[in-house]
Specification:
With 194 residues, the protein is mainly alpha-helical. 71% of the residues lie in helices and 0% in strands. The protein is built from 11 helices and no strands. The protein starts with a helix and ends with a helix.
Length: 194
């Protein structure tokens, strides 16, 4: 079995164990980084460790994954996270908070593009994502959730100049550029927000 087969095994086991949820877009990004980390530590138990760690991670972000086309929980989750972000941003940058409130689609887009993959789709290397995971993952799920919200705020603060001065269309284009997602800067900003 090669590594991709092992990653597929973890995802298939997760989908089988959680048949009501199954596999959702973005999960492979998270599993890939977890598997690589565990494999480098102990190849013999990498699949098992990845499976159990992934269960623990998904516990925090599970509401973002829809259970069907009529599942309203992802939108309720997004609305709750959006309100937390507005509050945190208002403390650090009231002008940015007001700008984002006047353009209400930006924060939901950032949430839906980032949280299902736990930001692993935003960085150019596994090492960068691993650094971010080290910041996000905590012993308690509530602390992991709080760290996730702080990273969302940090991304918005990092792109402040774009949100404040560019059109909605240009903003959507620029927030897709991976080179702008400097993990150390995002972690530094998230640490201050935390």
């Amino acid at each position: 079995m090669d590594h991709m087969d092992n990653i597929a095994t973890v995802l298939n086991l997760y989908a089988y164990t959680n048949s009501g949820m199954g596999y959702a877009q973005g999960m492979a990004f998270i599993v890939f980084v977890l598997y690589k980390t565990f494999y480098e530590d102990d190849p013999e138990y990498a699949i098992h460790d990845t499976y159990y760690a992934f269960h623990r991670v998904v516990e925090v972000i599970r509401p973002i994954y829809p259970l069907g086309s009529k599942d309203s929980r992802p939108h309720k989750f997004k609305d709750s996270v959006k309100q937390l972000i507005y509050v945190k941003l208002a403390i650090y940058d009231m002008d940015l908070a007001q700008k984002l409130k006047s353009s209400p689609d930006i924060i939901p887009i950032v949430i839906f593009q980032s949280v299902p993959a736990l930001f692993a789709n935003k960085f150019s290397s596994i090492e960068e994502t691993s650094l971010l995971f080290d910041f996000i993952f905590c012993d308690k799920p509530i602390d992991t959730f709080h760290s996730t919200v702080c990273v969302l705020c940090a991304i918005l603060l990092r792109f402040r100049h774009i949100f404040m001065s560019m059109s909605f269309e240009k903003t959507l284009e620029l927030i897709q550029v991976k080179e702008y997602y400097n993990v150390r800067k995002i972690i530094a900003i998230a640490s201050r927000v935390k």
